[in-house]
């Protein structure tokens, strides 16, 4: 597999640190509000990366943090008159609701910053001991000038950054580029005891401490949105390598921005959408489909029209799945003449799919392969196909769509009450009792069941 490494600015062959095992750290949300669709993109993309690596046989340890102490959280909690912990618990629960709706699997570990204060303090003490950090009035800052490699992830020149940095009035930092590792306590803010007095951790140090705890001082892949390259991930690299003396991350992966109707998403423009907002209008599986329809590093333009297109495309896949399930229920045991060649050809689609995914997780091309495969399946699988051919086609569809986290909704209807109503409707049609047939059809529709009449009988599926 080739991965575009942000740090080297080129595609590289992925070779894990430990053969057969992969450690992945993904920057998760700051839990002060519902996640927006910009947050949803890395959540979906890197969930797909994990699924694909597992599909290819790797033992993946997947870590996604939850930032539960932060300036925005403190401001929101004070505004609502609740504690930061109460706010965090509320929006962690809401995040998982949205993630579940997007069919994002839980990480192996979801560490919270506030559960790792001792670990964070320990890393800051190492930096201070190594001459890379200094304490002032109860706060501790990382000295950017002390790190000759600073800027290597983002490619920014440290001297230009220094000259362009704004000097704040009464700033206690030695240099305007230095960043906080520990912030001295302010009235009304949560704080913890430390060697420098009461305070709380800076944002960047949280991820360094938690990622190295769960994945080791050097690990395979660190993921996040493009907006995190600088300063967040740049600062993570600096403080982690200065604390451990070892390379921090081997491959950096960053997804591109989301625009809304060709404009940058922002609250001031009134084009800011949460996942929950979109979920009121669309099934969120369509949002997942939309996110995977572009290469993860490319900017992606969001619009309702494009979500509708993703919804329509997704329905084509579901129709293919339902059709195969229906054919399977009626297929003959004996093979048709065409079946052997068809079954052998299915491996070619799997190979093409993997070739796309091996090319820097190109989900857009992988989806293209999936639709090409479905076109062939639809043209070949019919009432004359043997059971083995239909089973093989359905298995391939479920296998490849599962890697992308798609087609996860129940398609087969096994509810005895529903099946009994379908049988009653079939009898009403035989009796030419069209009024009763229509009544039962409407009743089934209210229950979320669509009936499609075919020459082979009634096909039913959930809306």
Outline the fold blueprint.
Layout: E1 2-5, E2 10-13, E3 21-26, H1 37-55, E4 59-64, H2 71-80, H3 84-101, H4 117-129, E5 133-136, E6 139-142, H5 158-164, E7 179-184, E8 199-201, H6 203-215, E9 219-225, H7 229-244, E10 249-255, E11 258-260, E12 263-264, H8 275-281, H9 284-292, E13 300-302, H10 304-330, H11 339-358, H12 363-380, H13 387-403, H14 416-430, H15 434-446, E14 449-454, E15 457-462
Parallel strand pairs: 3-4, 3-9, 9-10, 11-13
Antiparallel strand pairs: 1-2, 5-6, 6-7, 7-8, 11-12, 14-15
Would you mind describing this structure in some detail?
- The protein is α/β, with parallel strands linked by helices and 463 residues long.
- The protein has helices spanning 37-55, 71-80, 84-101, 117-129, 158-164, 203-215, 229-244, 275-281, 284-292, 304-330, 339-358, 363-380, 387-403, 416-430, 434-446; strands at residues 2-5, 10-13, 21-26, 59-64, 133-136, 139-142, 179-184, 199-201, 219-225, 249-255, 258-260, 263-264, 300-302, 449-454, 457-462.
- The strands form 5 sheets. It has a 4-stranded parallel beta sheet with strand order 4-3-9-10, sandwiched between helices. A 4-stranded antiparallel beta sheet has the order 5-6-7-8.
- Strand 11 and strand 12 form a beta hairpin.
- The longest helix is centred in the last third of the chain and has 27 residues, at 304-330.
- The two termini are 38 Å apart.
- The mean pLDDT is 93.
What's a concise summary of this model?
The protein is α/β, with parallel strands linked by helices. 48% of the residues lie in helices and 15% in strands. Helix 7 (229-244) links the parallel strand 9 (219-225) and strand 10.
């Amino acid at each position: 597999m080739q991965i575009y490494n942000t740090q080297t600015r080129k595609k590289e062959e992925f070779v894990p640190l430990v053969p057969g095992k992969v450690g992945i750290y993904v920057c998760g949300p700051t839990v002060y509000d519902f996640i927006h669709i910009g947050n949803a993109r890395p959540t979906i993309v890197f969930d797909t990366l994990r699924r694909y690596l597992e599909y290819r046989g790797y033992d993946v340890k997947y870590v996604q943090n939850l930032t539960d102490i932060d300036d925005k959280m403190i401001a929101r909690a004070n505004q609502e008159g609740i504690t930061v912990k109460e706010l965090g618990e509320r929006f962690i629960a809401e995040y998982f609701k949205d993630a579940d709706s997007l069919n994002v699997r839980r990480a192996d570990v979801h560490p919270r910053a506030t559960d790792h204060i001792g670990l964070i303090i320990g890393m800051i003490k190492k930096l201070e001991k190594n001459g890379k950090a200094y304490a002032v009035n109860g706060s501790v800052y990382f000295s950017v000038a002390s790190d000759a490699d600073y800027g290597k992830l983002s490619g920014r020149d440290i001297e230009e950054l220094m000259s362009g940095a704004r000097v704040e009035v009464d700033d206690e930092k030695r240099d305007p580029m230095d960043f906080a590792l520990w912030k001295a306590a302010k009235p009304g803010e949560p704080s913890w005891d430390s060697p420098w007095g009461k305070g709380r951790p800076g944002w960047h140090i949280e991820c360094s401490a938690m990622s190295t705890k769960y994945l080791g001082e050097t690990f395979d892949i660190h993921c996040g949105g493009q907006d995190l390259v600088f300063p967040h991930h740049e600062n993570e690299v600096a403080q982690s390598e200065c604390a451990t003396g070892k390379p921090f991350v081997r491959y950096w992966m960053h997804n591109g921005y989301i625009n809304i109707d060709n404009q940058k998403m922002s609250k001031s423009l009134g084009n800011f959408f949460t996942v929950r907002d979109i979920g009121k209008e669309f099934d969120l599986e369509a949002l997942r489909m939309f996110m995977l329809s572009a290469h993860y590093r490319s900017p992606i333009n969001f619009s309702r029209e494009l979500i509708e297109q993703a919804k329509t495309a997704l329905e084509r896949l579901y129709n293919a799945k339902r059709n195969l399930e229906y054919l399977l229920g009626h297929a003959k045991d004996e093979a048709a003449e065409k079946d052997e060649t068809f079954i052998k050809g299915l491996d070619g689609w799997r190979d093409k799919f993997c070739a796309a995914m091996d090319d820097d997780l190109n989900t857009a091309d992988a989806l293209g392969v999936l639709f090409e495969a479905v076109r062939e399946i639809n043209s070949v699988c019919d009432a004359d196909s043997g059971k083995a051919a239909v089973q093989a086609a359905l298995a391939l569809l479920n296998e490849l769509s599962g890697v992308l986290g798609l087609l996860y909704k129940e398609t087969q209807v096994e509810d005895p009450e529903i099946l009994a109503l379908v049988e009653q409707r079939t009898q009403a049609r035989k009796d030419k009792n069209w009024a009763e047939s229509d009544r039962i059809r409407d009743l089934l529709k209210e229950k979320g069941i669509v009936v499609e009449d075919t020459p082979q009988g009634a096909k039913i599926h959930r809306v």
